[in-house]
Design goal:
mainly alpha; Arc Repressor Mutant, subunit A
Length: 177
Amino acid sequence: MNTPNNKRRQESRNRMESAFVQLLQSHEPEELTVTDLCRAAQVNRTTFYANYNDLKDLALSVHQRFEAELQGSYEEDDTVSSWRDVGFLKLFQHIYDNQIFYRTYFKLGLGDRLSFSGMDEKLLKAYSGRHAGYHKEFFRSGMVAVIKMWLNSGCSQSPEEMSRIVGDEYHGRKRLF
């Protein structure tokens, strides 16, 4: 019986997600077809459609998996000082370790969905008042731009250096993190 969480189904999903990310390294998203993906993942089309509605649904699944992994790395760190001290480092280390995924993430236009695990609440506390949403958006947009720039440079700076660059920017303004 093919239950939603059985081992075989999860293995198929993992193969399809991995093949999807790999295919996007040499193809634009609009060039990919379900047939290409199934061939690369060595699964049948029926297996694909048993798991996903379409390639966008697959992209969303990949996105959710990596977001959950990133957020999981912050679960033990919920103090304000943890972001200033290690939060940026964890973020940049995760990006460094998963460069292919993040390049794919931005290639798919999902960069606006990038979540900075726990920072939203801290930003709203640091910038309380009617303009807090603007500060939050400024931070998010700036972080996305910095991450894209770093990825485009081939992650030429270390995660530690990137953490210091961003940390210095926010540490010197208003002790947010």
